[in-house]
Amino acid sequence: MIYPSATVACFDPTHGYLPRRELDHERLQQFLQKLSSAGAESVLIAASTGQGHLRTVEELREFFDVAANVAPPTLPRMGLLRPEDGVEINVELLQLLKQLDYAVGFLRPGSNLDPACSDHDIVEQLQPLIKLASELQLPVGLYSISDVSGVPLTAQVVQRLVDGPGGEAIVAVKVTEASYEDSTLTFLEAAGLEHLRIVQGWDPHLARALQDGANAGNQRCGITSGPMSFAIYQYQHILDAAARQDWTEVQLAQLAVTEMFESMQDDPRYFADLQRAKYIMGLGHPICGQVSSEQVGRVLQALRQLPRRSDRDRLCQSLDLLGDGPCHATLQEMLQS
Fold it and tell me: Per residue in 61-100, is it b (16+ CB within 10 Å) or e — as a string?
């Protein structure tokens, strides 16, 4: 397959009330159409977006199914599975992804693994699912996100999975880790993994990953990004600058996204809580929680203080993608000021 250069980790529009909100089918359709019109190459339908790893299996199945039914036909979809849900459920979900014509199924280490587990334990958990995906002719992406799963993927583990049963189905590794040198860079430097797309997921490292990924000639790095859900126009600008190898502009534009990322990050060791951006866009509150006015204010203040008007304008337009969110008037005021 031709792996896309950028995939939006799609927000999960919600409505309803606590203790548990529901997926908003109509809003998801609107959001996917807007992302496609803005130039998104593909979307990741997942258990992600901040606190969304709390989603039940039935809710995850619903998200996969509804997205397949309402997404524009030209917008490829990927799906993220959770091994801690068990082999039987993941077999069913892999078959569902294939049936619904998903382009890639992503797997990460399960959160039920002991943080001190061995490489062998990770391989034993993931390999049966990779083998099944191969038999289904469903391409596989591997995903390292240790602040969710508790266990990072290493290049050594990925190499064992590539060499094992069904390993020919593996097409990419998504890396969402706080340390670039200990994660993304090791995959780029590993012999034997040159055929894989290395997908940067911890967004503040994106500028470096794109430049390192281009050093071999053809761009080896891609993006699968939750922030791309709220910064679609800024990310398109970054990708265009990277294609021109204008690395100064890539760095400057990335700094603006990093400011926004950090405004939603309560602890630098953990990924930003993107539910705050989701709420600003008019896509609802977290499935089991509530975004506060103080959290919204912190994000908007970071946006106001960006030093470059062009970055602020692209981010305002992205956050106002649907044109009717609770911060629509504020974002339009920033655009016109």
Answer: eebbbbbbebbeeebbbbbbbbbbbeeebbeebbebbbeb
Where do the structural domains in the chain lie, given as residue ranges?
Answer: 6-247
- N residues, the chain: 337
Of 313, 287, 157, nearest to 231 by C-alpha is 313
Q: Per-residue confidence at 183, pLDDT binned at 50, 70, 90?
A: very high
Q: Which two tokens stand for residue 41?
A: 């190459």
- The encoded tokens of residue 237 equal 């600008």
Q: Determine the pLDDT at residue 53.
A: 66
| pTM score | 0.94
The answer to whether 97 touches 64, Cβ cutoff 8 Å, is yes
Topology of domain 6-247 in CATH is TIM Barrel (3.20.20)
Tell me, what's the pLDDT at 47? 63
Report the distance separating Cα 323 and Cα 316, nearest Å. Answer: 11
Confirm if 265 and 222 have CB atoms less than 8 A apart. no
Q: What is the dihedral of CA 133, 134, 135, 137, to 10 degrees?
A: 90
